[in-house]
Amino acid sequence: MPSETSSPRKENETEVHIPAAPFIVKQSGSNALAVCALVLAALGLGTSGFLFVQGQNVLKNQELAFNQKIDKAALGESENAALLKDNLNRQAAIQSELDRLDGNVKANGEQILEMQKSYRELTKGRADWLVDETETILNLAAQQLVLTGNIQTAVGVLEHIDSRLSRFDQAELLPIKQAVSSDLAELKNRPYVDISGTALRLDRLETAVSGLPLILDGVLKPGVQVKNEAASASWWQNVWEKSLGTLKGLVEIRRLENNDAMLISPEQAYFVRENLRLRLLDARTALMQRNSEVYQGDLNNAEAAVRQYFDAKSPATQSWLKELAELKALDVRMTADDGLKNSLNAVRAYRDGTRMTAAENQEAEQAASEPANENTASEPAAASDVKTIEAPSLPSERKPEQPAKKQPVPEKAGRSPSAKGERA
């Protein structure tokens, strides 16, 4: 009975689900096949559902891992952006500090240049000091050479300068050394007149005028000699000499070129000596003035006066005339003032060259400082331009990356409906 009741139900079910079947074939193994098919269908459906769920889980895990990687990348990018910003800020601070230090360096450089200029003005080099000293000494020696004609002093000055210059090896001092050597050789070949020594010799002659014997004194002197000789002779020789002297004193014949020498009185002899002293004094003045004509004229007049009024045969007069002749032989003409011309010209040429070099160096420094100032003015502008360009570059680089983070999100929305449909 139960089988009969179940079979009509199955028939009704088959009739409900398959209305198009025209007839039903009744077989004995149909129930077993249906159960197997149902089991297989259930297993396939479960397996497919399990595989679908497993695939969805794997996909979700991959999506989560991908999102985590994107989040990590975004976090790293933000950290890199923050680090980059910090580095840019540090770089800007360092650049500003470098600009400040550069300004300080340039200011210090300008101060150093000013100090160097002041130092060069205040303290010159050893060579410059030597040249200045040489120029001063040469000017003084040239003045002495022109005024007094003292060649030995000029020679000593040049020898001193030559010894000082020999201690320096600078090439620019070579023309001065050559000029000093040539002037030194030329002055050594010139005749030298010791003006001070000659003046002293004239003073000695002037002093010796008072001791020169006059011609009248020479005439009377032999009588005194006879008396002195008679005192030492025998009595009969004294008588004979006295008688002979008396006879000779009666008549005396003497040749005189100038009768005035025998006719001068003692007062006139005083004026003769004074006139002779004045001649010698004029000769000494002419010697100081380097006036050769007046000097020679005064000495000639003094010699003529001595030969006219004084006893030329006496040893004192002969010695006096001999020294006067030596003084007459001296050449006291004015020494040419070009004895130190070469040395002075060389020193002036060196000074002119030094001034020209200093002027050129100053122009070069000015020319070098002008481009430096232009560069310092352009560098801050360039730095500001770089900063304005670099600052907005960060957002522009980040903007294309932000949508990349959000791209998987629509995929989630797109995939979730499909997944729901598949699940349904």
UniProtKB/TrEMBL annotation:
Descriptive protein name: Heme biosynthesis protein HemX
TM region positions: 32-53
Pfam families referenced in this protein's UniProt entry, alphabetically: HemX
Ranges where the record places region Disordered: 358-424
Transmembrane helix is among the record's keywords: yes
Biased composition (Basic and acidic residues): 396-424
Biased composition (Low complexity): 358-375
Keywords (A to Z) from UniProt: Membrane, Transmembrane, Transmembrane helix
